Amino acid sequence: MTILTAKVAGVPHVIACTPPINGEVPAATVAAAHLAGADAIYILGGTQAVAAMALGTETVPKVEFLAGPGNAFVAEAKRQLFGEMGIDLLAGPTEILIVADGEADPFTVATDLLSQAEHGPDSPAVLITNSEEVAKETIRFIDEQLKSLVTAPVAGQAWRDHGEVIVVDDMDEGYKLADEFASEHVQIFTNNPREALDKMTNYGALFLGEKTCVSYGDKCIGTNHVLPTKKAGRYTGGLWVGKYLKTQTYQEVVSDKASGELGRLCGRCSRAENFEGHARSGDLRSWKYLKDGYGWIDEARK
Prior knowledge:
The chain is an alpha/beta fold. The protein is built from 13 helices and 9 strands. The strands form 3 sheets. A 5-stranded parallel β-sheet has the order 7-6-5-8-9, sandwiched between helices. It has a two-stranded parallel ribbon with strand order 1-2. Strands 3-4 form a two-stranded parallel sheet.
């Protein structure tokens, strides 16, 4: 989700860093990075990887742009480096929010909330529904599933400390509240899930209907999964090709007349803002190309 996007954007040299798993080379991750087009792969993770790529080492070249999620320490390292180098976005703990109506299956809601709660003990998992029955049953099924979930020590803490179930009067209120959360992942379990496309504007990614789930986005569905958290979905989207591109402009005036007329305009605009030096750059062009007269030029050229 970071390598292939960079290669599509035309980045000439892409470095991938991934940590070892239990002291071993993560073969599947390395293979995926290679197939995605990485030009170099280092078995290195965390802030060590960030520092190596940001500063450069004997073996890891310095990079200009850093993309990809990580833990709280990686996020802080990226925050401190921003400006000295480019970054994709500042990602916080994984978030899931489900908007469900009275027809939603509470067992599915519970399963999907826990699927993201297992990311970390500080991962928010939120249900907004207009059905008190769906709300109560979801809570019951979460308690039951935690008994057999191997990641329950993490998911259970996340649910206990950051889980929320909110019952609203109607779905319009539900969508409005969901927009205020601006969650990273938003699943829509209603009889008309595509309605959310019109009702909502603030989210990292939408997952429409019970046939779709956030775990698909995490692992296999194909859309980019580097997404905004901590309400950043109010003003930005996730990682895409454009993040790797620079918007650059150039200017060239080739007409004497056009340059002179621009000079006159520049002079007026600049003096209105008390930028005399700027104005004189414009004056000089209108003097050169339109033969305008300026006392300051006559005086300075003596």
